Amino acid sequence: METSIPRVVAVLGRGVLTPGSPLVPADDLGFTRGDGCFDALRVVRDAEGVRVDHATRHLERFARSAAAMGLPPIDVAAWTGLVHEAAEAWEGEGEAVCKVIWTRGGEFVASDPVGVALVAPVPGSCVPLRVAALTTGRRADAFRDAPWLLGGVKTISYATNAAAKREAARRGADDAVFVSSDGYLLEGPTSALVVARHGLLDTTPTAHTGILPSVTLAVIAEHAAAAGREVRERLMKPEELGLATGVWLVSAIRGVCPVVELDGRPLPFNPRITRTLARWAGFAPAEG
Amino acid sequence: METSIPRVVAVLGRGVLTPGSPLVPADDLGFTRGDGCFDALRVVRDAEGVRVDHATRHLERFARSAAAMGLPPIDVAAWTGLVHEAAEAWEGEGEAVCKVIWTRGGEFVASDPVGVALVAPVPGSCVPLRVAALTTGRRADAFRDAPWLLGGVKTISYATNAAAKREAARRGADDAVFVSSDGYLLEGPTSALVVARHGLLDTTPTAHTGILPSVTLAVIAEHAAAAGREVRERLMKPEELGLATGVWLVSAIRGVCPVVELDGRPLPFNPRITRTLARWAGFAPAEG
What we know:
The structure is a homodimer. Chain A is α+β, with helices and mostly antiparallel strands. Chain A is about 25% helix and about 30% strand.
């Protein structure tokens, strides 16, 4: 498979390989059952060289995902080396994603887990989003005492997240936001939710909701605290957003994307807060 | 990876390959996001040769899974050829599973889907099961009007199914049965539920429940109809099982397994109906 897109495939214990060549055994449980975890880190190459943003935080979350699934433990030091080796080997300019994946190994014959880091450019920049609200079919507290539902765990079983993005596109929207069956906003398929209102910043609570703890949100919250502000965790309903000053979906890869429409209803767009949040998250401000 | 376990890897458009060698690109969406579908067929090699049970039914369900996910269409004739080629190449004796998998192709660079058929022996025979009831966190009608939840679609995003089996083992049980948040029995992580009561056979309804339509159950229902009996679809609560004559988890691979205990409470075991159901499903009767 020839391509001009610069990308890197690196394997734990082996280093950088030729991208595009087959790597995963067909009976690897990560492939046959989505039985593995992942994380996604931002890679930036600019005049100062290449860097990986918040590598330790992402790899520690990666390790928590593996532990929650009973996968072999993640060696954060070894993965840090692999991620930086992969980032260094990436020949592109600008922004890329480094996706790390760790699986349970062979389904039919016991074999080592696949541990891989993939680097590829990020398609497009953050733009104002029209978003469709899609139910998860679960109440906001459905993950309480049900660890087998893998709430807050970044598994590679992402088929419903991918299907939600396709459903959003089918409705003419750019992205989705999940809503619980009892009507509370949760998170995007690949992002966390932030709402500004009455001079405060709110996000949605993790734990019982099954929402993935967002590294980007944690970084924003620390900068907010340093600026004397707080990011509160709060369950919110879509109808509350009409009173908001601004609404965003944030992630390590796309940064801080303003949500300007929910199910066809316009939401307020605040360029000033967008710039502040993007700066706190380590991104150039989104245009819009 | 050397092994003495006989198994086969065959690829759509290429045929039988050496098992154990890497086959799947690391950025295949089936691997990075569980964004693909699968099905599992029973292979039997005995004195009469090798056969694949109900290949067309399984591959037609496989095609429906692909269509529900917006994957490239399944060519049932081509897959039938691949499945039989893989089964013929299997050098084992007795029973095996043929798992077919179909993915969306490359995440970072557009590439062909992976289409693969894997054959490997089935570990162990069907034994009486002690089962743990685990909530899905969703009501029994949660999949109504929410196709992005992929109810009834056999995706390779099976991490919660695998986690449910681990939770069952942690509780000292052999398998799990999912229960809706409003208290209805649904299905096992890899099997369908059948209950005999008052001389009737009941199973749980598909469609709004998200339950996968079981090929084995359809075969049983046809034999039942030929014998002048009906398999009814009905929502049931665990507490009703105390009045049952027998309870089973059925699948194409393990056959008809009696459930003899639910959450530590014994359930009646009926060897006669077990033998009948197993014969209808095309299996030797389970021992117990």
